[in-house]
Amino acid sequence: MEDIDWSAIVSAVTTAAVGIWTAWFTYNQRTKDKMTDMKIEQYKKDMKRKSFKRSEDTARVLGALNKVLLDANADRVYIVQPHPLGHIAFLSIQFEVKANGVQGMRYEVQKLEMSDVSKFCERMVNNLWLYFDDIDHQVQDPYAKALLSSNGTKVAAVKRMSTARDWVGSIFCEFIDKPSICESDLQKLMHEAAINIQYNLPEFQEEE
Q: Domains plus CATH for the chain?
């Protein structure tokens, strides 16, 4: 009987095993790469869709605010938003429209700590509608009073916005002179704006 060349057999088996493993690894790696590429592509599509949705919502919000500004012949209309969602600690303005030549409030209210205006925040959260035609006597919170007065506000109306569960922000409509629109008409106008905005209001994003 001829001697069996075990070393050749072992070498052949090893070579075959290595070949099979290499082929499997290559296939597996390609599959993973394809899955990764698909996830990246899906992520890009999702981000593009979200970006488009945010742009669409932003246009809708600004359009609603501008309608209030024009119809009420106001000087400033903006939204104060609480953030971050889930652990609200700050107030900021990211949406504002104003008449020509009027100073804006947007850069006055950025990451304002709610604790600094706690009394005013409580009123915003607990009331669907607030109307101040005597800032000095009707606004009790000293920080909020100073903020409004220093920017020339004589009359301010505030309409709360909320989803089914949460307060998402408040629309402010301000006048530096006596308004030509009565309070009841202004309330109706801002109520309509709130309905059009509150479920489409983009989450506050800090500027980079």
A: 51-197 (3.30.450.40)
